[in-house]
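Regression test case RT-17, inverse folding.

Input:
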């Protein structure tokens, strides 16, 4: 409903150059529809970790896309017109490692005791310790890239608030990951870790998005009065 309301609002505004957001809103609507189908399949397949993992991955994709829409709506102007090649490369690597880390996290869950429904445990045939260590290494790589991106933003004289928030969330997520491992996969900690995953995706998307100015972005207020 929120996505539909936003789409209607965008088409009713008298600022036509904000309709560049419409494709992203349509994408959100499409992903929601796909999510409904995947959710039904996951129940039908007794919460198979592969389908549940896809459901989680799509959810994080929706979070990232929705964050980008909000950033474009309320902060169309970036700190700079463009970023240096090194900064762009670090941002691209950060995005790739974020996706990789999230997928590995889903796989880790799929090898553990909370995979499958209450009457039928279904797990990936992988060594839980090995995949957990790989996930941990990807998290450390993510932390290093966030530090590097924050340093480059500081060096360029740009805003650093977004990166400080992101660094704090990465550290929190890492601590939660180690705590849930040491506590034998406590359910409450796992839920916090999943919540942290969504918040971290928001923070990373936000921090990267505000570093660039969309083409033909308006300097005027984003939304105007309906016709």
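Golden output:
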């Amino acid at each position: 409903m929120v996505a539909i309301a936003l789409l209607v609002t965008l088409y009713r505004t008298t600022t036509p150059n904000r309709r560049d957001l419409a494709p992203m809103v349509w994408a959100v609507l499409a992903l929601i529809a796909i999510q409904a189908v995947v959710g039904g399949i996951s129940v039908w397949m007794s919460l198979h970790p592969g389908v549940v993992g896809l459901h989680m991955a799509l959810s994080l994709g929706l979070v990232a896309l929705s964050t980008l829409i909000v950033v474009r709506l309320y902060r169309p102007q970036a700190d700079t017109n463009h970023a240096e090649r090194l900064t762009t490369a670090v941002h691209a690597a950060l995005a790739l490692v974020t996706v990789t880390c999230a997928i590995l996290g889903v796989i880790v869950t799929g090898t553990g005791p909370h995979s499958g429904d209450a009457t039928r445990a279904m797990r990936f045939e992988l060594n839980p310790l090995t995949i957990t260590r790989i996930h941990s290494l990807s998290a450390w790589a993510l932390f290093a890239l966030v530090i590097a991106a924050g340093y480059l933003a500081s060096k360029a004289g740009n805003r650093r608030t977004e990166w400080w928030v992101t660094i704090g969330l990465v550290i929190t997520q890492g601590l939660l990951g180690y705590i849930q491992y040491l506590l034998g996969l406590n359910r409450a900690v796992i839920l916090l870790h999943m919540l942290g995953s969504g918040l971290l995706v928001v923070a990373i998307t936000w921090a990267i998005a505000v570093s660039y100015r969309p083409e033909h972005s308006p300097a005027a207020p984003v939304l105007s009065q309906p016709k």
